[in-house]
Every structure is written in C-alpha cells, then in structure tokens.
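## retry 2 of 3
previous attempt timed out at serialization; input unchanged, resubmitting
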Amino acid sequence: MSTAFEEIPIIDFCNATSRDPALRRAIAIDIRKACVNVGFFYVKNHGIPEDVISKAVHAAERFFSLPNEMKNKLSIHASPNFKGYTALLGENTNPGNKGDLHEGFDIGWEPEQAPYCSDLRDDGPMMGANVWPDNLPGFREDVLAYYHAAVRFGLLLFPLFALALDLPEDFFANKVTKPAAIMRLLHYPPQPVQPIEGIEGIGAHTDYECFTILWQQDKIRALQVLNANGKWIDAVPIPGTLVLNLGDQFARWTNDVFKSTVHRVINATGQKRYSVPLFFGTDYDPIPGCVTPDNPAKYEVVGAGEYVKSRLEATYAHSKT
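## retry succeeded, writing output
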C-alpha cells in the first residue's frame, strides 16, 4: 500500500521523443509512479514556446478586463456545448459550496488556420462552434496557438502513458484521432481576507477528462491537492513547468490503477491569478490488464463526451436561468 504523498513530483520530458526506447521507458516509469501514487506531476521541458504561452495569458488578461456587459454577450449558457464566458460564481464545482470565485472563457477544438467558426468537427455530445469576442484583435489567434501547442503536447503523452501501463506505445493511437480537448482561460480575483463560507476560487473536485495540462501563474500559490490522509498539499508554481493531473476518464479507463485526485484553488494572495488548463479527453473502453480477478471492473462503460457533458451540466446548473 502506498503512503500519502507530501509533495508533487517533477518529471523531465527532454527525452520524451528520444529514439532510445530505454530513455522513453525511464520517463514512463516516473509517470506510472506519479499516476499511481499522486495523480499529479510537474512537467519540465514540455516544449511549448514561452512566447506562445505569454501571448495566450495576455489574451486572457485583455478579455477579462472587458466590461461585464461585453463578456456576458458570450455567456456559456447561450451555448449548447459549454463554450464561452462564465461569470464570477457562475459555476459551482463542489456541490457543498455556494459558487466558485473565478471567471472563465472556454473553447474546444477548432482549426488553427481555418476561417472564423468554420469547419466544425463531429465531436459527439460536445460538438459545436466556439464563440469569440469581436472587439479584441488577435485574441482568437493567440488563444488557438496555445491551444494547439498544448494539444500537440497532450498527444505526445499517450505513448508514454501506454508504456506506463505496460502496453504497446501505439495503444492509444486510434483512440485520439479526434482529441476532445477543452481549454479554459481562468481569472481568479483575490478572495476576501475574511473567507466567505462556501465560496472558494474553485471548490474541491476531480477533473472529468483523461488528464489536464495546466499553466499556472508564477509566484501565486493557490492550487492545492488532497492526499490520502486528508491533507492539502500546495502545488507551488515552478517557473518553466506545467502541471499535469489525471482526470476521471483515465481513472475509469484504468479501473482506478491511475488516480484522479481531488484538488481546489484558494487564492488568498491578495493578487489576481490567471491560469490556463487544457482538459484532454477521448472515447474509450476499459484498458486490458487493469481489470483482473483482484481488481474487478468498477465502472460501466460510458462515452467520454456523454460523461463530460453530464458533469458540466451539474456544475453550471445553479446559475442557469
């Protein structure tokens, strides 16, 4: 039995695409340890250019600086597939809370170079066009540039996850031909000095998809991860890294061999905080080897899009009018 973690491991991905299988397997061994014991790890040498990241973050700052009236024209409640703007307290991730103290802007897959809102892809229950502000030149381009860079990195992870599960490196190749990636720009204002009961930056929850690739702002300590002893461990921002955590789809997919770990955000720094999570999902069946006589199947098979949409409907239900 593993002990409760006290820190989040850092994994160096500089050899992720090495021609040497021993170097790739070494990374996979580290990934397995992190996924089985923690469900979170930092990614060093992820390969996403810093200027791509900084432009996306600046785009977020520009958007959230707009008047509420302009942002609300893109309300997520006007979208059948949860794309667009969420106001402060507009979602409630922890059912025991009153609302989440952040605002967000959500997008899904869209060709990086295609004309505005064209070439829709069949993404099942989550299919539908993105919505974009029409008064922020360059916003769509800068946001999509980071989105596609993060998706490319997410695709690079799957051969390593396969190795971590003692599967062929190409096991996931035919399951991520249309990656169902949702990305959010998030703005967390400072929480009040005197906390309001039931209101946090984002309440305790697990993510819904396979995994999340998170950029978080340097020097703003806010993300916390719950260990097996019920202790909150700070996911301290480390410059130059991304945070990766597993979601419910991978936990279900691996029959809980990999962990989807509860986490929350409490921004008690007195400063604004920005973050950019990309939630990477796909459709799936149980992975061979994860269901055994000693570890029988715990979940019914469900389509990933259906699962994610049902979780989002519950999250936003309290602010729907």
